[in-house]
Amino acid sequence: MAGLWLGVLGLWMAGVVAAALYLVPVSVEGLGELARVIFFHVPTAWVAVIAFAVAAYHSWRYLRDRSADRDHRALAAVELGLLFSVLATVTGALLARVTWGMYWNWDPRQTSILFLLLIYAAYLSLRGVVRDNENQAMLAAVYACAAFVAVPFLVFVIPRMTASLHPQPVVNPAGRIYMERPMLAVLLASLAGFTGLFAWLHSIRWRVARLVAAHSRMLMEHDDPEGGARGSGRAD
Amino acid sequence: MRGTAGRRSTWLRQSSAWADAVRALLWKEITGEIRARQSLGLVLTFALSATVLAARASLTLAGDPDASAAVLTLILFFASVVGLARLFLGEEEQGTSGWLRLLADPVHVFVAKVIYGTALAGLICLLTVPAYLVLCGLAVSPGLAVLVCGAASFSLASAVTLCAALAARVRSGDAMVAVLALPLAIPVLWTTAGGLAGALSNVPVLTHVAFLVSYGVLMVTSGVALFPFLWEG
């Protein structure tokens, strides 16, 4: 079943890439062929926000039931969220270079995604300074939940409070879609594909984290049978 | 009818008990500060020194409301973090956190700390904003400045208090407060800078104030939900 799902995802993404790069005619003034980056830029930003929402959800669940699995899932989601945020920043900088003449010009949307990166980099820093597994997971879960409060403000509110050169996003206050139909279709397909890609990467990443945790617990128990059992504390 | 009145009376009794508990904890913070006389003096000295240095360094920017507002916001943030970082670290160092855990409800503790933090940040605003304006020879719309500073103090305190509680649980907590709080306070700083620039240019700042208040309310709400895990965990 997983193989079938993966096959469908692979075919879907191949179709999206082909359509985005070769099949769909793009018509965005001033961007030319670079407008095709939009098919990857928008989904990466979308997936970053989804990843942070997933992290907040699993962190909250961790606080409720203290299952190490939830902590691994939250950590995996934050790591992927950071990865997709970097991709969104880089693709955005490429678009900015062509349209505004420079890679970085402190546009509210550019700045918002950078702030998201900083917030979740602090999450990783917090995990880095705590040695005890349970304490680390609990503190990180609290921070991830609090950090998600800032996300809607950074993604939806601040960019609308200050003047921006950024094109109107697909979800905009006017409730209108400023895009040709074929482009929109590919963009929506890309959004779905990237969301599936995130789900797949997330399932791999948290299972790896679970294996790593089990392996280090096994090593601790091997070195110090009593202390190892005490130190790990949690069951996956 | 009697049932509704009874429910209302129970609700009033519970609210009153809740307010009494928060008031008692707030009083503990204030009397603790009055007795120790360390943290407040330290924070206000830091705020004043930073203001004088920043005002001297940014004299050439004084004509630009955006730049002046940004400098002022940074002073407010760092001075507030110096003070708010002690909210929980002080309890851990003095060994009073154990007593608090035994005697007080975590939500009451958190709300009292946010109120105290808001007052502290407000005091810092009261000192630094007029000092910076006088030193740089700037004029501001007083009503707008008070509105922005009040909302910013609340919003900043609500974001930093939870981070201070987190940092109290880790090694080198003092440094961690800034690391954790700065990213979470970025929306507050961004908007405060915009609001102060508006106050300096005498343009409406209601959007900024509304943003700061709503961010603060959401942070307090999330803090009320999350702090008990941190306190009891």
Written overview of the protein:
The complex is a heterodimer of chains A (236) and B (233). Helices cover 78% and strands 0% of the residues of chain A. Chain A is built from seven helices and no strands. Chain A has one domain (30-172, 197-223). Chain A starts with a helix and ends with a helix. Chain B is 87% helix and 0% strand. Chain B has nine helices and no strands. Chain B has helices at residues 2-36, 39-57, 65-84, 86-94, 97-103, 106-136, 142-167, 173-201, 206-232. Chain B is globular and about 60 Å long. The chains are: A mainly alpha (236), B mainly alpha (233).
Structural class based on helices, strands and sheet pairing of chain B: mainly alpha
Q: Can you write the helix and strand succession of chain B as a string?
A: HHHHHHHHH
Distance between the termini of chain B: 43 Å
**Mean pLDDT reading of chain A:** 84
What's the Cα radius of gyration of chain B? 19 Å
Q: What coarse outline of chain A follows from CA principal-axis ratios?
A: globular
- How many E strands of chain A? 0
Pair of chains with the largest interface and how many residues each contributes: A-B, 28 and 31 residues
What's the count of strands of chain B?
0
What distance lies between the first and last C-alpha atoms of chain A, to the nearest angstrom? Answer: 24 Å
Strand content of chain A: under 5%
Count of runs of 4 or more consecutive helical residues of chain A: 7
How does the overall form of chain B come out from the CA principal axes?
globular
Number of individual domains of chain A: 1
Helix coverage percent of chain B: over 70%
Report strand % of chain B. under 5%
Order of helices and strands of chain A: HHHHHHH
Please outline the major beta sheet of chain B: none
